[in-house]
Amino acid sequence: MTALAALVVGIAIVALAHCSIVAGTAPPPPKGPVTYVFGDSMSEVGNNNYFQLSLAKANYPWYGIDYPKGVATGRFTNGRTIGDYMDAKFGIPSPPPFLSLSMADDDDFLTGVNFASGGAGILNETGVYFVEYFSFDQQISCFESVKKAMIAKIGKEAAEETVNAAMFQIGLGSNDYINNFLQPFMADGTTYTHDQFIRLLVATLDRQLKRLYGLGARKVAFNGLPPLGCIPAQRVKSATGECLEHVNSYAVQFNAAAKKLLDGMNARLPGAQMGLADCYSVVMELIQHPQKHGFTTSDTSCCGVDTKVGGLCLPDSTPCRDRKAYVFWDAYHTSDAANRVIADRLWDDMTSASAGAPAPRASAPGPAAAPGPSPPPA
């Protein structure tokens, strides 16, 4: 059984795990799996709105035009993110942004938190020109503060069981290329060869995942990189408007290295179930065969901002008439319609992989678990 399949099987008994949590005045157990989200602008739901100086924000029109009530929430798309659609499949609401919570006054953080921040990368130097944002290391520190608040609220044993049983969804790495290695004014692209850069990324990710494991994370779904060379902002660098194959090859190489890292952690760390979600194949399918999935256009953005500085759908932009016909919303981010299809495909891949796995037994000991480009892909 693959690691991702094991994550899906764990969902079947996550409720049983939470039913065993009884600690004084602890609130009722959540109805679905607790989810913690770490990532960049593809996963963000509004943390950067709280940073006064952040240059990676999407809290203005036309963002959110297809979100409920047409409100811009800080999501870098016209509607819902892939994570929003995946959460709906798990039967849970999307976790709130970390900076919106008051852990002293409410219990919302007990059912999941989104730490994702536009501009973030695996490396701390990635995204520095966005000024204010949460790097992955900072996001982990935010989670650490959440866990301390959980212990104060429901007790150490209950907090540990909750975290062990939770899904950790991580989507990072795009900015390390688009806003770092591929930028001529960033040092990493001139300091390292690509092989050296991947080793740096993997060594850093290894440390970060071990830190999360030490904080109780056991079930981790890491989103592989999509075909970055095919996003509109990269296509415009080609004389023919085609995908940049060398950039796509970077993504493929990183994904292989990340999978090897995750497999090694599963073998070495007791209880670890860490898997790589194949976003590359799913997104490439949409790009190469858009009509098959109800789209007409996959080589340019709905907002027509492929060559604009920042590549975002600013208020002075003019969105396309049929937003459901475009795979990309702006120069870096997929549209609401594409996010729905991507989530459907990822869900199908996960559930089909677990179809042949033995059903979990209700008597199984211990907690069960489950999983899930602002100026450039922020």
Main attributes of the structure:
378 residues; alpha/beta; Rossmann fold; 5-stranded parallel sheet; two-stranded parallel sheet; 12 helices
Quick structural overview:
This protein has helices at residues 3-11, 14-19, 82-90, 136-154, 156-165, 174-181, 188-191, 194-214, 232-235, 245-268, 279-288, 336-354, and strands spanning 35-39, 112-114, 167-171, 219-223, 273-277, 297-301, 326-328. By secondary structure, it is α/β, with parallel strands linked by helices. The two termini are 34 Å apart.
One letter per element, helices H and strands E, the order comes to HHEHEHHEHHHEHHEHEEH
Strand content: 5-15%
| Order of the strands making up the biggest sheet | 2-1-3-4-5
Biggest sheet statistics: 5 strands, parallel
Helical percent range? 25-40%
Name of the CATH first level: Alpha Beta
Number of strands: 7
CATH architecture: 3-Layer(aba) Sandwich
Spans where pLDDT lies below 50 across 5 or more residues: 11-25, 359-375
Q: How large, in whole angstroms, is the Cα Rg?
A: 20 Å
- Assign the structural class, choosing from mainly alpha, mainly beta, alpha/beta, alpha+beta, or little secondary structure: alpha/beta
Tally the helices: 12
Name the overall outline.
globular
CATH fold call:
Rossmann fold
Distance between the termini: 34 Å
Mean pLDDT score, rounded? 89
When the domains are counted, the total is: 1
